[in-house]
Amino acid sequence: MSDLDIQTPTSFDPFADANADDSGAGSKEYVHIRVQQRNGRKSLTTVQGLKKEFSYNKILKDVKKEFCCNGTVVQDPELGQVIQLQGDQRKNVSSFLVQAGIVKKDHIKIHGF
């Protein structure tokens, strides 16, 4: 019996290598810009994932003045602070964030129809 030691199968994690390799890429923070349909033709654009060091109210004030739309900053328990804007402002907001130097273009993900 000493020649044939019994080996019990250990748990195998198939994603262990992938998680170790993507540790640098997983830490890349994205800014998510989404559009939500309200009623009829009305829509709502949300911006989440901005760094905490930025003043959300100042960004909101500049975006509202630039694109002639109304908006607000909403505190979400899971997502933190989220900027909400009236209308479909996805392309406008993404170009504004890049031009203002707040976010790089490859850190922006645009979602929606």
UniProtKB/TrEMBL annotation:
Matches recorded under PROSITE patterns: SUI1 (PS50296)
Domain SUI1: 31-101
CDD domains: eIF1_SUI1 (cd11566)
Pfam family, one: SUI1
InterPro entries documented for this protein: SUI1, SUI1_dom_sf, SUI1_euk
Annotated segments matching region Disordered: 1-25
Keywords, ordered alphabetically: Protein biosynthesis, Translation regulation
Start-end of Polar residues biased regions: 1-11
Biased composition (Low complexity): 16-25
Function description: Probably involved in translation.
Stated family: Belongs to the SUI1 family.
Protein name: SUI1 domain-containing protein
